[in-house]
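User: I'm preparing a small set of examples for a lab meeting where we compare how different chains pack in three dimensions. I only have the primary sequence for this one, and I'd like the structure in token form so I can line it up with the others. Please keep the answer compact; I'll paste it straight into my notes.
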Amino acid sequence: MNRKIILFSLVFFSFLVVKAQTVDELFISGFTNYQNNKFSEAVEDYTNVIAIKPDYADAYFNRAIAFEKSGKFKEAVSDYTQVITLKPDDANSLLNRGMLYVEMNKPKYALIDFNKAIELNPDFSNAYYQRGLLNQNISKDTAAMNDFNKFISLQPGSVSGYDALASLYDEMEEYEIAIKTYTIAIGIDSTHAKAYFNRAYDFDIITKTDNALADYTKAIKFDPAYSDTYFNRAYIYNDLNEFDKAIADYSKVIELEPQSPDAYFNRGIAKINSGRKHDGCSDLQKAAALGDKTAKKYCSVNCK
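Assistant: Understood. Below is the structure token output for the 304-residue chain.
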């Protein structure tokens, strides 16, 4: 989860010059350590700030983020709670605490925080987005759809809302609507590899094979390191009996994921189907060695 960390905002009084400067220096040190991914040191700095100024909400907020980055979710929740106690109208702390509750598998608490954040700030787009993801996860599809549409109305130029909404349509098996939604995302960002990949998957489901191939190829252009795209395109080529193209794509998957038994298995079958049984059996034996039980069974019968 990405967080914004607050630099500082201090009010100085002449009779607290020495102490305020110490708080100032510690706060900046915490910020610097955080920026340098020294999260434990940042926690220590903010703890020292709080020891001097125990009602300093921004120090609790920043320490919460540093705790979170260190994987200490319980401590982070405690700090966000302290911020909310000091600043009851802090929608950002409610959002962040809610996101932590999601990570901690406490959806009821998360939903309370997201609702409160939206109550405090009805135009808080990220709160609608996060609540939408939560509602989708707990199978409240209508509520999730409303949240994603609200996010889109507040952030019409962001692909995130359309991606989330299309994903919801996919779960509902509304593939035609999902395709239209991914198309809007691609219209916003023509290099959006994830949208091309997901739209290709949906095109394949509704048997628009040429469209699927075209989208997988686009996805590869904009994200050539994503192995699943080659794998899915290879699967289509295999179904079309275009075995050389399938083999090339499975080979790329193996280049990216050398320990992928599925890629070795499928490449082996493609090679056998193209008349290269010896090479195909070598791939199947490799898949079996990587733990593929189907490959092991196939080899025992066909690759003696």
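A couple of notes for your slides: The chain has a mean pLDDT of 93. The longest helix spans residues 17-35.

User: Perfect, thanks.
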